[in-house]
Write a structure and sequence with these properties.
seven-stranded mixed sheet, Rossmann fold, nucleotide-binding, alpha/beta, 364 residues, six-stranded parallel sheet, NADP
């Protein structure tokens, strides 16, 4: 008998993405799975129920969660919804089980085998499953569009009958996937773009996109392509040089993050206060506390004429393409253990073993 796969309708406020599209449903059906989709699950991303039915899925009913062997989601269901899942089912999504004790307890109580995709090892083989990268690309793109909307100026240089308008000076803080997408987007809009990252190896990537690398003389190159924590002395010197530079910047987009930790505070309140009126800061890191001390997650505020925005869940704003990328990531991951209509885990596969929560114990 084929395994039953359930695609959840997201319940988090403002979440428009979906964990499977008609394209990936068709692939799962071809892999021998029986797919059920909660009514309206894809509507926020532009995928109507009939498109799923045409792809070979059925609409879920109220008792489907208690029967599904594999459950796909974007954000984790709440504890009450987890309590409705089948005992011992498998759950795949951006679950963050350790971020919420009640959620983690609910997963353990139901014996749910969880695969929080944010834990996926960042290896070459895992790139096609890397939800953090695919969703960060959309977030970086949207952050620059928000900045352009909030800025009281043009991004490109314009020559008009009323004189020449100089291009806006845009600084992108952090050159991960979101930051690089932000640099590329700001450049396309015609701005004069700089990229800042404490990892010196990002210079080439920033420059390849047409940005200028802002070198503040402080390096924080770490393991696995991530930044390490700066020492107090390094941070003080970085902040001194950055504060001076920010006085001439029109727009700042912050994207710096350290996995599993609060976002590093890079732009201090005194720096914001010293920026010229009309400047804009869009803090993409608001969900983990923000790179800017003035950021209020989910709000847009003004301080002495400087606009500071802390938008949340930006990837959801581009729900169509974000869902297409995310669902392909999910399909590629579940293809590791869904074959010929059955679930078969190979715990020698590091992508499964290192993503699983709770982790695989040595005896297994």
């Amino acid at each position: 008998m084929a395994i039953e796969v359930l695609v959840l309708k997201e319940a988090a406020p403002g979440e428009r993405r979906v964990a499977a599209t008609p394209e990936t449903v068709k692939k799962l059906v071809a892999a021998g799975a029986s797919i059920k989709v909660e009514p309206g699950a894809g509507l926020g991303a532009g995928f109507v129920d009939q498109a799923y039915i045409d792809a070979g899925a059925q609409m879920a009913t109220h008792d489907t969660p208690a029967q599904a062997d594999l459950v796909l989601c974007v954000q984790s269901p709440d504890p009450a919804a987890i309590g409705q899942l089948k005992q011992g089912a498998t759950l795949v999504g951006m679950l963050q089980p350790q971020a919420d004790a009640a959620r983690g307890d609910a997963l353990k109580a139901r014996g749910i085998l969880s695969f929080p995709l944010e834990k996926l090892p960042r290896t070459t083989r895992a790139q096609a499953m890397d939800v953090l990268s695919s969703q960060a690309g959309m977030a970086g793109y949207k952050a620059v569009l928000i900045a352009a909307q909030l800025a009281p100026r043009f991004f490109p240089m314009l020559t008009t009958a009323a004189g020449t308008i100089r291009p806006s000076k845009v600084l992108i803080v952090g050159a991960g996937v979101a930051g690089l997408q932000a640099i590329a987007t700001a450049k396309r809009l015609g701005a004069q773009v700089e990229g800042f990252d404490v990892r010196p190896e990002t210079r080439e990537q920033i420059e390849s996109l047409g940005g200028k690398f802002l070198d503040l003389g402080v390096s924080a190159a770490g393991e696995g392509g991530y930044a390490r924590q700066l020492t107090d002395e390094e941070r003080a010197e970085q902040q001194r040089r950055l504060a001076e530079h920010l006085k001439g910047i029109d727009v700042v987009v912050c994207t710096a993050a350290v996995p599993g930790r609060p976002a590093p505070k890079i732009i201090t309140m005194p720096m914001v206060e010293a920026m010229k009126p009309g400047s804009v800061i869009v803090d993409l890191a608001a969900e983990t506390g923000g790179n800017c001390e003035a950021t209020k997650p989910g709000q847009t505020i003004e301080l002495n004429g400087v606009t500071v925005a802390g938008p949340l869940n930006l990837a959801s704003m581009g729900a169509v393409h974000a869902s297409e990328m995310y669902s392909r990531n999910v399909f590629n991951f579940v293809s590791l253990f869904v074959k010929e209509g059955a679930i078969n885990f190979d715990w020698n596969d590091e992508l499964l073993a290192k993503t699983r929560w709770p982790e695989v114990v040595a005896a297994e």
